[in-house]
Each structure stands twice: as structure tokens, then as C-alpha cells.
Amino acid sequence: MQITSHLRTGKECIVFLVQVYDYEIKDAVLKIEVCKNTEIFQVCCEISVLHALSDLSCIPKILFEGYTMRGSLALLTDFVGLPLESWISDNGNIDDYTIFQIILDLLSCLKKIHAHGYIYGDVAIRNVIQRNGHFYFIDFGLATSLQFYFNPWQEIIQDYDGLCQIIGIIKFGKKMSFLELIDKLKGKLKSFVIFVENASRWKTTDKEEKYLEKFDAIIRQFYEKLPKKILQI
User: Where does the Protein kinase domain start and stop, copy by copy (predicted)?
Assistant: First the structure.
């Protein structure tokens, strides 16, 4: 394995792009823990979550987990792609059709994560990459089991709220409230934001499974109303 570039440094870990020779892929992402004096061990949490979600194709696959020679926890995964922020810069103004394609990819992944009993927990444009023509989440250090929350539905809806924020950043260059987005957006993007805003106000008196079923039913109706062109991603 050889480090080819430094991707970013966070409070708890440093991330590299590396070339590997023991797997069928050429490039991989190496994350190394750099801060041990913390109550939140994001690299350790990410490893646990990736194992729990390992049967999902939209989730990074673990190639290696263990420790460096200096005793730091390390994680090697296979998801390498172009950051969404860079993809936007390369492509200039992004039309609504393309934005909706991005949201559909991310929405599909979130639904699968939630159905497995987890939230992603950090839906943001910085955590999205373009890979093989589709868009994916990376960095699962803040993903958490729904069992740890008193009101799981509100945690789930925060993930979908993050999708709305991504729409605002791509379309208008900034985070915006539901009301601002609804006022400025048109078509299917506006319909999606209205749907999420309505879902955020559902009274959570039943188990979260009931809300996931209700949410999925509305999403299916939403898909059925879409032009076939949009669904042919």
C-alpha cells in the first residue's frame, strides 16, 4: 500500500488516498485515528456501522481494519470518487434535473440505512462523492443505531432535512430554511422539500417503524409520479 495524497484532516482522524496492491481495486481511502483523548471514537464507530450495513451496495466496504505500527486505529475502505463540491465546480450551473438525480441517489441510500435501524447523522455536501456515475455518502463516523434515541423519527427526519440543505447549496450556494427553499424552488425539487417539511411535523406517538412505513409509502407515490426519464439513472 502506498499513500498518494492527503484528502483532509479532522479533529479525530486524518484521511489519505492510497494505492493498494492486495485487492482487485487500485485506489482506496485510508483513515487513521489521530486523537485518542475524546469521548467519541469516530473511526471505531465507523467500523462498527460499516459492519452492520455491510450488505448494502451503497455503503463503503471495509478492506482493512486494525492498528498502525504506532498503535493508531486505521480503516481502509473502497469508496473513492470525486467530492460533490468539486463535481459542482467542474460542471458549473447544475440544472434541476441533475440535482434531482443526485437527491434520488442519496435518498435511496438513506432509506436503506434507516431500514437497517441506523441514521447517517451527518448529511452534508462535504460527505458526498460522485462514483461510477452515481452519488454516495462517505464518512460514517457519526452514524448511530436508532436504539439509542428516545425519539428515533426526529433523528431520521434530520437526515432528510440534510438532503434539503444539499439542494439549497447546489441550487443557491447556501443553506436555507424550509420556507426559503419552498419559496424559491419549483417542480419536483419543491415537492420533495414540502414533503420532508410536512414529515418533520408528524406527531411521534407510535414506534418509528410506523413512520418509516408511512414515509416509504409516500416516497413510493412520489416515485410513481416522476417522469420515466428521471428514473432512468
Answer: 1-233
Cα-Cα-Cα-Cα torsion 83, 120, 179, 100, nearest 10 degrees, comes to 50
What average pLDDT does the structure give for the chain?
Answer: 86
Q: 82-231: what fold?
A: Transferase(Phosphotransferase); domain 1 (1.10.510)
Helix 96-115, helix 152-172: angle, nearest 10: 160
CATH 3.30.200.20 fits 2-77, yes or no: yes
SS3 77: strand
Q: How many CB atoms lie within 10 A of CB 34?
A: 14
Do 82-231 and 2-77 have the same topology in CATH? no
> With DSSP H G I counted as helix, E B as strand and the rest as coil, what are the percentages for the chain, rounded to 5?
45, 20, 35
Burial of residue 231 (number of CB atoms within 10 Å: 0-12, 13-18, 19+): exposed
* Distance, CA of 1 to chain centre: 27
Q: How far is CA 23 from CA 47, 75, 80, 178, 226, in A?
A: 19, 15, 14, 44, 40
